Amino acid sequence: MPVSLPRILIVGLGNLPLPLTRHSVGQLIIDSLATRLDITLSADRSGFAGHGTVIIGETMVSLHLFKSKSLMNVSGPSIAAVCRKTVQSPKSMIVISDSLSHKVETMHTRLGGSANGHNGVKSIISALGNDMNFHRFRIGIGRDDTDAATYVMNKLSSHERHFWANEGLDLLLSGIEKVALQN
């Protein structure tokens, strides 16, 4: 009897017209994952998507990557459509988003729960019919004294970009393997 591989969809939140900003760190990480795992991202009407059967840690995974062409705060419908088409269940989806509440170069994971004020996550929850049962990898971007909207639109430092393409990506891959082992 053949063993079925865990199927995971990883979505990076961001705004394509504003790459390399703190708010688009999720999309930067999707690009880093695609490069590291040798998955080609191709454009379609709703965004950039790629798929590959890869080994993460010691686990073979059928991995789908996606970044929406829609602006983050209205990206839910395109993300929900990709979820239904690829993995069917939101429980097999990981959403990577920025978090003002966490220190720079940290990642906090959880399954389910509220959007914590993040409009991109709110849009996904709404598009999934209020289903909140998906994994969130919240990427710490820190916070300073400036207005939050201004702060998130500032560019990531070169150190942060390097971190999420290297050591931070290792941290993320460890989290992905944990999710895959639950599926």
Explain briefly what this protein structure is.
By secondary structure, this protein is an alpha/beta fold. The chain is built from six helices and seven strands.
Low-confidence stretches: none
Rg result: 15 Å
Which sheet architecture does the biggest sheet show? 7 strands, mixed
Helical element count?
6
- What would you call the structural class? alpha/beta
Proportion of helical residues: 25-40%
Beta-strand percent range: 25-35%
Multimeric state: single chain
Strand arrangement across the biggest beta sheet: 2-3-4-1-5-7-6
Given the C-alpha coordinates, what overall shape results?
A: globular
Estimate the mean pLDDT confidence.
96
Count of strand segments: 7
Taken in chain order, the helices and strands follow as EHEEEHEEHEHHH
How far from one another are the termini? 18 Å
